[in-house]
Amino acid sequence: MQFSRGQVIVSKSHYHKGRGRRRCAVLKIAGILGLAAVAVGLGMTQFYGEIKVEIAIQSDLSDRIESAATDYLRERPLERVVALLDEAHLLEYLSEKVPEMDSGAEVERTGWWVPDMVVQAAPREPLLVWRINGEKHFVDKAGVVFASNYYQLDPSIEIVDYNNMEVGEKMPKTFLQFLGQFTADAGEVGMRVEKLVIPAGKSREIDVSVVYRDKVVVFKLSVDRSAMEQIEDINRVMAHFDENGVKLEALEYVDIRVKRRAFYK
User: Fold this and answer.
1) For residues 127 and 141, what is the distance between their CA atoms, to the nearest angstrom?
2) Do 223 and 174 contact (CB within 8 A), yes or no?
3) Which of 39, 202, 210, 262 is the most exposed place for a label (fewest CB within 10 A)?
């Protein structure tokens, strides 16, 4: 077979062009791989590293929160990615596993390369003491029941339960919230509360012992009414007793379960 000079030149040109295309393709692939490596390196900054807990009172509460947070991420590995972490769900999980952690906890991150997860928390502050099945428990202003008090002193106000109620499904959340809310609101207005009694056979009534002029007066309250409204009713009743010279020591109880009405015996 014979080839003309022109034909040979054309073949060499195609050969060089083919080599050029292959070289460009290799360079493009190398560039893509390089960019991918950089992206992976930068992407590492989007994953949480260590879990740290910052808390005002040093105790085993820090270890308990850290352990619970570790369990949370172990069960949900995708949430180790910063952008995928559901902070609200994490805090809800921690509150359930560690009820002694105050509900005002927050989640932050620190560090550049691999950020650390920082849980800033405080111990839940108890307002009431409650013995359940012979064991001491505590109740805070939100009505949360927990077993350990991380403050130096226990609350002076106790819950006396003649109804043998148990925490859990048998204990309505609104009932617990009322106990905590009433105690917190009473403290804010300077009302001295000695104890809260859950009467036998009653599920919607609380008998509260209030100290007034060194006398103890028992008020029957309803958990279906606002705690602050009933505190205002207590103050109105006390003012009425002062104006009319009613002897507090002669009272058995004052019933204010009905709004703006008081019955005393």
Assistant:
1) 7
2) yes
3) 39
Cα–Cα distance for residue pair 59/152, rounded to 1 Å: 12
Q: What is the dihedral of CA 177, 183, 186, 191, to 10 degrees?
A: 160
Q: How far apart are CA 127 and CA 122, in angstroms?
A: 15
Q: Are 116 and 50 contacting, i.e. CB atoms less than 8 angstroms apart?
A: yes
Mark which of 86, 121, 156 sits at the end of a domain: 121
Tokens 């034909």 map to which residue?
7
Q: Which two tokens stand for residue 230?
A: 């009933």
Residues 134 and 117 grouped into a single domain: no
Regarding whether 114 and 70 lie in a shared domain, the answer is yes
- What does each of the 265 residues of the chain score in pLDDT, given as a tens digit? 444 454 444 444 544 455 556 666 555 565 555 444 444 444 444 677 788 888 877 789 999 999 999 999 999 988 888 788 899 999 999 999 999 999 889 988 776 656 788 999 999 999 999 988 888 999 999 999 999 999 989 999 999 988 776 655 456 788 889 999 999 999 999 999 999 999 988 878 999 999 998 999 999 999 999 999 999 999 999 999 999 999 998 899 999 999 888 898 8
Q: What is the DSSP letter of 151?
A: S
H/E stretch holding 35 reads helix 5-43
Q: Are residues 197 and 255 in the same domain?
A: yes
- Ramachandran region of residue 129, left (φ > 0), alpha (ψ -120 to 50) or beta? beta
End-to-end CA distance of the chain: 129
